[in-house]
Amino acid sequence: MLPPEKSSVRRICLFISTEMHLGGGEKSMLTVLEGKETAGFEPVLLCRPKAEVGTAARESGVRVVEVEMVQRDLARQPFAYLRSLLRAFRIVLKIRPAILCGDGWRGVPYAVPMAKLLRRPAFIFLREMDLPPSSVTRFLTKQADHVTTISKAQRRFLMEAGIINDDNSRLIYNGLPMSYLREGNPPEALRVSVGLQSEQLGVVLPGYLSRYKGNLIFVEAVKQITDQIPKARFYFLGGPFPNVSNPEDVGFDKVLAEKVSEEGLSDVIKFLGHRDNVADVLWAMDLVVVPSIHEEAFGRVAVEAMLAGKAVIVSQSGGLPEVIQDGKTGIVVPKNDPTALAEAMLKLLEDDTLRNAFGKAGQERAQRLFPDTLKRDKMWAAIAEVCHQ
């Protein structure tokens, strides 16, 4: 390693993201970036031109440096990747960071090689519940000096796959800003704005429209209970993925709308689309469901719902059961099981006392375990520790 800078000089911590859109993982990274006064570091973000995460970082006062980087299919375009890595390295040489932090699998192919060339620590925060997209990424991840995971389930999965080990990794849960916190009953005008009348009950599935988010399972579950609880209304909150990489998600929003129509559910299932006021929409509802059928590493939307004081139903998917407490703040159901989801929704919609008790307990849990300040402090403490090793 190069000798450490003098204590009077603020050390630069370089964060690297190749994502163009601002998803949950990027929001979690921004939580850390905003702790720029912590541990004597100055964060700098290296990202692609016009990336949404770069815009958001600038707005929070973080220095942003842009360079073209390859995001996907590195093995299929090795020369493009190497050229972009060289361009990035020339920029990083001028920045002289004390440590390089890669965001997710796609940050690894840039953070680790440049850290090794600079003889600086490579710190990776992983947020996916799958294997690296290429053998190159897998190899480089194993060369990182330290890795953080965001759930016990994700950590266990990656350790069993041989990607990480006890010596070079730690668990730090995601954290959310308390701006999502809502207390008391939502104003009637807010409920009306999303299409709810005073006597109706609202159930919402927040997140991008995707097969893997369990949207079709939700429709099947709704079909089973509409006759039993006619005052319930059901909602999708979110739009299509902005950058669809999976062929099954291409045009899925239209497939989903057609499914709702074919099942005769257009009167009870509504599409709210993308909304900037997510916290208010969650607050206006009575119940939130997250029936993912793929493995969620954490489950950020479940915490958003808990902060809004809502009971949450989640599937047995990755870290989701860690976020809520089954039978205390919500209900965990098997993945890909519309009947189990229907039964859980019916149970909570028919029992106001239980639903409200779950919501209150969930809000207390989210405030205690998942505040953004706790995430930020733990991340910067870990970065400082690795930087001094």
TrEMBL record:
<dbReference type="Pfam" id="PF00534">
    <property type="entry name" value="Glycos_transf_1"/>
</dbReference>
<keyword id="KW-0808">Transferase</keyword>
<keyword id="KW-0328">Glycosyltransferase</keyword>
<feature type="domain" description="Glycosyl transferase family 1">
    <location>
        <begin position="193"/>
        <end position="365"/>
    </location>
</feature>
<protein>
    <submittedName>
        <fullName>Glycosyltransferase</fullName>
        <ecNumber>2.4.-.-</ecNumber>
    </submittedName>
</protein>
<dbReference type="GO" id="GO:0016757">
    <property type="term" value="F:glycosyltransferase activity"/>
</dbReference>
<feature type="domain" description="Glycosyltransferase subfamily 4-like N-terminal">
    <location>
        <begin position="23"/>
        <end position="175"/>
    </location>
</feature>
<dbReference type="InterPro" id="IPR028098">
    <property type="entry name" value="Glyco_trans_4-like_N"/>
</dbReference>
<dbReference type="Pfam" id="PF13579">
    <property type="entry name" value="Glyco_trans_4_4"/>
</dbReference>
<dbReference type="InterPro" id="IPR001296">
    <property type="entry name" value="Glyco_trans_1"/>
</dbReference>
